[in-house]
DNA sequence: ACATAATGTCAAATATATTATACATGAACT
DNA sequence: AGTTCATGTATAATATATTTGACATTATGT
């Protein structure tokens, strides 16, 4: 586990985006650490956005474009629904 | 089949969005007609956007937000990957 | 012939996503 | 103590998505 993770108390950036009555959860952070602790900068480079964008999406500050969502899933080689999920439930699968 | 469909020759709006080397296909039009020929206006109302937005997304003029993508899938009661697909292949399944 | 409904399109305005730059913090290391 | 790395945050600028309002076309029905 690298530097920033151990002190991140998931305060502002919980990975849950509320919009209307529904929410979008994402597992980007987990996928990054599972993928040899890939850094936010590395992920940003691989999907062709800036680090700030990764921070915002991972922290669910806003809803990314579908194109970027697909590229993130592509990087981790998983289907989109294993990165983002819609509804009230948390990620369990 | 209602009015507009029979003369639409799929000229500008092919439902395929190219970005970078990859593409995003969508089946919104098919899903609409399968769903009792739901109109663009009806779909727009149900996902909370304007008709022009539905036209643009259906015609793949740009990449919608993930939130809207999820709401579209929700309306048709299918998983997201049955509405939008990423990559070179067309929809077959 | 006329009206209506569904769609495609266009241009300008607004909202939101994304970038660019900069600074702060804690962990790991020397 | 000092340095580096990964992260969180903030603000202004730019790009893109979405809205608003309007108009054209074709099909369907009267």
Descriptive keywords:
homodimer, 93 residues, 434 Repressor (Amino-terminal Domain), 3-stranded antiparallel β-sheet, 5 helices, 13% strand, globular, DNA-binding
Summarize it.
2 copies of one chain form a homodimer. Chain A is α+β, with helices and mostly antiparallel strands.
Describe this structure as you would to a colleague.
Chain A has a domain at 28-78: 434 Repressor (Amino-terminal Domain), CATH 1.10.260. Chain A has helices at 3-7, 28-34, 40-47, 51-58, 66-76, and strands at 16-19, 22-26, 84-86. In chain A, a hairpin with a 2-residue loop joins strand 1 and strand 2 (22-26). Helix content of chain A is 42%, strand content 13%. In chain A, helix 3 crosses helix 4. With 93 residues, chain A is an alpha+beta fold. The first copy, chain A, is globular and about 30 Å long. In chain A, strands 1-2-3 form a three-stranded antiparallel beta sheet, with no helix packed on it. Chain A has five helices and three strands, in the order H-E-E-H-H-H-H-E. The model of chain A is unreliable at 1-11 (pLDDT under 50). The interface between A and B is medium-sized, with 22 and 22 residues.
The pair of chains with the biggest contact is: A-B, 22 and 22 residues
Mean pLDDT value of chain A: 84
Biggest sheet overview of chain A: 3 strands, antiparallel
CATH fold field value of the domain at 28-78 in chain A: 434 Repressor (Amino-terminal Domain)
Side by side, the strands of the main sheet of chain A go 1-2-3
Which structural class is indicated by helix and strand composition of chain A? alpha+beta
| SSE string of chain A | HEEHHHHE
Quaternary state of this entry equals homodimer
* CATH architectural designation of the domain at 28-78 in chain A: Orthogonal Bundle
């Amino acid at each position: 586990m690298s530097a920033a993770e151990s002190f991140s108390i998931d305060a502002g950036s919980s990975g849950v985006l509320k919009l209307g009555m529904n929410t979008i959860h994402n597992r980007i952070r987990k996928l990054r650490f599972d993928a040899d602790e890939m850094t936010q900068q590395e992920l940003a480079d691989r999907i062709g956005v800036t680090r700030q964008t990764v921070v915002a999406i991972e922290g669910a500050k806003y809803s990314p474009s579908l194109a970027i969502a697909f590229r993130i899933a592509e990087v981790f080689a998983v289907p989109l629904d294993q990165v983002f999920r819609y509804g009230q439930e948390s990620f369990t699968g």
